Predict the 3D structure of the following.
Amino acid sequence: MGFDRFVLEQLPRTPSRVLEIGCGPGQLALAVAASGHDVTAIDPVAPEGPIFERATLEEFSAPAPFDAVVASRSLHHIPDLDSALAKIAQLAPVLIVEEFAWDRFDERTAAWYLAHRDGQSVSTEQCLRDWEQEHTGLHGYDTLRSAFDRRFGERFFAWGPYLYRYPEVHGSRESEQAQIDAGEITALAFRYVGATLSD
């Protein structure tokens, strides 16, 4: 299931007021808006359009509360994650996330990745070193999950495939999921839905 359909299933009502953080080119925000929801999508490089605002989460000022905040592969980039989640918890009672657990990339998963990608051939060990270097400074799974759990109670959680997204990888979401289900490789994506904890 695409993340847009997943988001729509998690929203409490139609129309819901939805804030997307780190919207990028805006496809998710446009899809959710097209389904009848009142969407605001923020990103420092957000596209032009009535639902978009060029702003970071820190800069954003909400005119009214939202029903849900959505973040697709954006929270692992935010330097002060605890402050960001504190603000998100004030903005809406529900957080819907799709994220990247880059730090779960292990030897078996690296071997699968190398076997399915175009480009220069390197050893598994070199691939792991390169991967670590490329992702240094990004929040890993344990950091993300601990931060979520301080502000939200889990309503939904599931692991899923991630590497198929890379243009150099010859593999589908389904084939990667099959390898995850068989225990051959490790899932690097997860979906999480949390509800704000009462004080």
